[in-house]
Amino acid sequence: MPTATVNGVRIQYDLNGSGDEVTAFLNGIAMSIPHWRPVTERLAGRFRCLCHDFRGQLMSPQSGNPGSSIRLEDHVEDLRALLEHLGVRRVHLVGTSYGAEVGLLFAATWPGYAASLVVIDGVSELDPLLSATAEAWRAAALCDPVVFYRSIIPWNYSSAWLAQNRDRLRSREAAISALPRGYFEDFAALCDAFLALDLTPKLAGIRCPTLVLVAEKDILKHEGFARIIHRGIPGSRLDVIPGAGHAVVIERPEEVLRRLQGFLATIGAGREAGSRPA
């Protein structure tokens, strides 16, 4: 995969597909580029699909200085610089969890770039339970890889998915255990960025078409948070994906894709209607 050096960090990215429009897929905190493939591979016939690992994630480590501080604003500026590097001036934003929060801040900060926004299991503010969970994940990351991985699993997946994917989870645990110490130090820095979250006051400034998706069984970033975002963004839509846990992009990629395609088709139809003479 290609890399681009933006704001002093080597960002690994993947840009595939065809069409005039670009859709950027923004990772959850423990995700990497390949997690999006079940969605992007089926969308690439209509859009160019851009994925990248944020600074501090697996494929874009803070080399030479792991664990140095990270802010959500850094991800926003990195994405803007990456888009500039690629010659992209307008983008559909699709973010899940941590990436949803980056998407919200990007759309509020750079409205001229944002053609639309899809927020999947994101939040615009914290409550004590969510803060405590992020603090626990941070501590576990700096403690032991297995402890870290096992601590995040119950929050991310539905009971049904866990029961059906035990072998997959064991394999992933082994892969996580083999990662270098710098990965976990960077993860702790990402948690610090998340713990500074305070986006609700910025929601009213987001003017692009917005779809807020939330998984029915999400116990981490539940429907109550989604409704705060829905109320805060003028004209936004709210939709619930039944039966899925927080990591709905991994559990139910086909449902995410179906709703994303419907939303983008609606935007395209509205744009075409607006271009026709009265």
Protein model, in words:
The protein has 278 residues and is of the alpha/beta class. The protein has one domain (3-125, 198-275): 3-Layer(aba) Sandwich (Rossmann fold), CATH 3.40.50.1820. Helices cover 47% and strands 17% of the residues. Strands 1-2-4-3-5-6-7-8 form an 8-stranded mixed β-sheet, with helices on both faces. It is globular. It is built from 11 helices and 8 strands. The model is unreliable at 272-278 (pLDDT under 50). It has helices spanning 37-43, 72-86, 98-109, 128-143, 145-156, 159-164, 166-177, 181-195, 223-232, 248-251, 253-275, and strands at residues 3-6, 9-17, 22-26, 48-52, 91-96, 114-120, 210-215, 237-241.
Brief write-up:
With 278 residues, the chain is α/β, with parallel strands linked by helices.
Present the secondary structure layout.
Layout: E1 3-6, E2 9-17, E3 22-26, H1 37-43, E4 48-52, H2 72-86, E5 91-96, H3 98-109, E6 114-120, H4 128-143, H5 145-156, H6 159-164, H7 166-177, H8 181-195, E7 210-215, H9 223-232, E8 237-241, H10 248-251, H11 253-275
Helix pairs in contact: 1-11, 2-3, 4-5, 4-8, 5-7
Poorly predicted segments: 272-278
Beta-sheet strand percentage?
15-25%
Mind describing the biggest β-sheet?
8 strands, mixed
Can you say what the CATH homologous superfamily is? Alpha/Beta hydrolase fold, catalytic domain
Radius of gyration: 18 Å
Helical region count? 11
Helix content: 40-55%
Which descriptors apply to this entry?
single chain, 278 residues, alpha/beta, Rossmann fold, eight-stranded mixed beta sheet, 8 strands, 47% helix, 17% strand, globular, disordered C terminus
